[in-house]
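// run 5 | inverse folding | seed 20
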């Protein structure tokens, strides 16, 4: 008899023993792993998208079965993730795969773009949308989202402002915390929670000139006082994973930046989860020029504390050699493996690798009426009324109303960029909503009026050829003028298509595309009342529009429920309350522009030649941070502090009376700012410290009180010490960063 001995030892599924604790289970498992299997756990590959859904390359299938790939992204659905998990269960150690995906503003029920949603200034709603996204994503086989994106940005040229919460660290931090809570809940073992991933660590929102992927060059003070707080807030809220950014930080790419990952993130902030790179960031270091080749890049990344290589295969290809050459240590590889296995443990995947792949759950949890209703509620809260001369809005559902523009019947753009597994065909457009809303009451007219752009290169880049009306620009405008001629009032829907913001979508001109502007100007010349509805993913420069058009409503890209939400605001069924979270400039020449600027030694004064200003434009923005109108009005009065002089440890209480002086009930976003009048380092003119959304019935008054304390007044000085410096401060409460009531106080 011949005894066949196979070297391919197969183990039973690696389940924790009864009462076995995490540490002993994971260490035991790591003890059984070959180097190849360890590097496989540090590897994340994409599943490619096809017309019918995600597909995986055959080479990856083989890699999964051989334990060379421990993690997959862009794969979803219970059936498909189960098929892939089956492959992992054929590997020697049967370590479950982790499935990640960009669930950025919803999985299948799509919520407003994050920049839009931030304009609701409502952390309860921010948490709700993340919670629903997690429920839907987990029902669809996913374990991990690459969200929240918490990059502060003050440059609307950068296309990815669409994915963040705007320019302010206080609001950005509050939303970052809410998102982590929403995705992760209180227990990652629940089948309805997923790992969050704070990105892009760090400073990705500050590329020079707003050009995506460009160099970042920033003072330590700006970093610590402004750009880092939202990442830290998300970590403090328990974010399980972090994504390293494409850019350099202090001259060293984030994925090789040991100071950033080892010292700041892990030692100082106490982060215990794993760090994944952004897409091929390790490989890209060769272009950054901080390493000679991919081998060196892999060494630099591992030594900097990067645990998982997204798509680059650098760890898998080079770390074995690097270990032999003693350029990396096995202990560091083991630590990275441990962190990744730990995440799988926390999700309960070792107990049941299929626990997220349940066909029944997927059928009942996704795009439910309740989810769609919440999406509509959030969409309504995200709109910002920028102008409303003579109360042109809300419209009466009477007479003849013309709806003109590329976004009236459009469904494609509504779900915005990074819309995950969302299907734009399931989104509800404006036309259907207003037809239903005005049925039997008003006569509605329609013309497209303009394509979103006439730039053929851009059209090709954005793959929107099939959505382009083939008629000439003039034919479209002439038709619109004929239609407008028959109407009493014209609603124009203009802006950017979804592909004009987002990744790799920076613009040097942030106005409405020229052909749409031409349409607007021609219709305006007819002298009829016009309401302008804007669809866009970034602040636009709207100087002409603001001067000439009586009513302007910013609708961003509001997601699946766009149409009904916009219609509710248009016809006054909902009173808008959103406020912008990024400054709108008058012209791109003012960019970067933000409210928390400093005075300079030659403060702006129009009457002084040698003051800090432009010759050809005002210094002020078109719309200030925090600005947004309502169908009612609010008056602010009687701002009072509990005292005017405080010791460092005393609590400052500020109260103000707010009255709804109009005829409609509404919600007002009340904002509290502080200015440190004299600091050892120069301080911003205003910094947001608190905010609250208050509901007031028509005619109702309420006293609103906020408390702040020393934490709110501390900052990083020139020596990078976090200090509270005694002296005089101003405290402001108001409806936006520009219109405020002011009091002074002192810290002794
Ligand atoms: C983006 C990330 C995203 C990743 C995976 C990258 O291009 O920068 O934000 O999570 O792709 O899709």
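// decoded
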């Amino acid at each position: 008899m011949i005894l066949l001995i196979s070297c391919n030892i197969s183990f039973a599924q690696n389940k924790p023993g009864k009462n076995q604790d995490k540490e002993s289970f994971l260490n035991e498992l790591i003890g059984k792993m070959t180097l190849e299997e360890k590097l496989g756990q540090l590897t994340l590959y994409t599943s490619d998208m096809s017309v019918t859904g995600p597909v995986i390359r055959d080479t990856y299938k083989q890699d999964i079965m051989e334990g060379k790939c421990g993690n997959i992204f862009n794969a979803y659905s219970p059936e498909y993730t189960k098929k892939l998990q089956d492959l992992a269960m054929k590997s020697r150690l049967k370590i479950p795969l982790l499935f990640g995906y960009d669930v950025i503003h919803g999985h299948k029920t799509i919520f407003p773009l994050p920049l839009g949603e931030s304009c609701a200034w409502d952390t309860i709603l921010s948490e709700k949308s993340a919670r629903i996204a997690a429920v839907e994503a987990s029902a669809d086989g996913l374990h991990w989202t690459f969200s929240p994106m918490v990059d502060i940005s003050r440059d609307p040229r950068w296309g990815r402002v669409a994915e963040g919460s705007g320019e302010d660290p206080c609001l950005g931090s509050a939303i970052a915390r809410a998102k982590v809570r929403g995705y992760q809940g209180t227990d990652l073992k629940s089948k309805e929670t997923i790992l969050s991933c704070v990105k892009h660590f760090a400073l990705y929102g500050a590329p020079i000139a707003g050009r995506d992927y460009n160099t970042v060059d920033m003072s330590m003070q700006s970093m610590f006082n402004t750009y880092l707080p939202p990442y830290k807030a998300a970590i403090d809220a328990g974010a399980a994973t972090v994504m390293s950014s494409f850019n350099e930080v202090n001259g060293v790419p984030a994925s090789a930046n040991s100071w950033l990952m080892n010292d700041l993130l892990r030692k100082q902030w106490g982060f215990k989860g794993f760090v994944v790179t952004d897409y091929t960031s390790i490989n890209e270091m060769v272009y950054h020029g901080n390493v000679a080749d991919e081998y060196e890049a892999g060494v630099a990344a591992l030594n900097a504390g990067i645990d998982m290589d997204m798509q680059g295969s650098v760890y898998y290809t080079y770390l074995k050699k690097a270990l032999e050459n003693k350029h990396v240590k096995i202990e560091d590889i083991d630590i990275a493996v441990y962190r990744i296995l730990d995440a799988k443990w926390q999700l309960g995947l070792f107990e049941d690798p299929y626990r997220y792949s349940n066909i029944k759950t997927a059928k009942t949890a996704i795009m439910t009426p309740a989810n769609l209703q919440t999406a509509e509620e959030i969409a309504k809260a995200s709109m910002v009324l920028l102008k409303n001369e003579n109360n042109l809005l809300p419209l009466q559902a009477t007479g003849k109303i013309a709806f003109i523009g590329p976004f009236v019947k459009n469904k494609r753009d509504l779900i915005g960029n990074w819309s995950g597994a969302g299907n734009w065909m399931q989104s509800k457009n404006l036309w259907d909503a207003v037809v239903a809303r005005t049925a039997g009451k008003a006569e509605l007219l329609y013309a497209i009026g303009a394509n979103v752009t006439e730039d053929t290169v851009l059209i090709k880049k954005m793959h929107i050829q099939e959505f382009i009306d083939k008629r000439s620009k003039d034919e479209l405008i002439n038709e619109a003028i004929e239609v407008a001629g028959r109407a009493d009032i014209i609603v124009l829907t203009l802006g950017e298509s979804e592909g004009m913001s987002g990744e790799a979508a920076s613009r040097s001109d942030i106005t409405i595309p020229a052909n749409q502007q031409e349409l607007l100007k021609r219709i305006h010349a007819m002298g009829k009342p016009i309401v302008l509805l804007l669809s866009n993913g970034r602040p636009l420069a709207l100087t002409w529009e603001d001067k000439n058009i009586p009513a302007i409503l910013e609708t961003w890209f509001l997601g699946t429920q766009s149409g009904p939400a916009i219609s509710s605001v248009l016809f006054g069924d909902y009173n808008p309350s959103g406020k912008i979270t990024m400054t709108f400039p008058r012209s791109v020449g003012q960019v970067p522009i933000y409210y928390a600027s400093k005075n300079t030694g030659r403060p702006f004064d129009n009457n002084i030649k040698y003051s800090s200003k432009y010759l050809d434009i005002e210094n002020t923005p078109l719309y200030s941070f925090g600005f947004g109108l309502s169908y009612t009005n609010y008056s602010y009065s009687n701002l009072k502090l509990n005292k005017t002089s405080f010791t460092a440890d005393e609590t400052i209480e500020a109260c103000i009376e707010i009255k709804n002086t109009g005829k409609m009930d509404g919600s007002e976003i009340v904002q509290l700012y502080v200015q440190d009048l004299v600091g050892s380092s120069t301080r911003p003119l205003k910094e947001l410290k608190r905010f609250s959304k208050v509901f007031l019935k028509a005619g109702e008054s309420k006293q609103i009180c906020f408390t702040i304390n020393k934490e709110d007044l501390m900052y990083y000085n020139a020596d990078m010490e976090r200090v509270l410096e005694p002296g005089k401060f101003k405290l402001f409460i108001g409806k936006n960063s520009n219109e405020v009531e002011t009091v002074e106080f002192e810290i002794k």
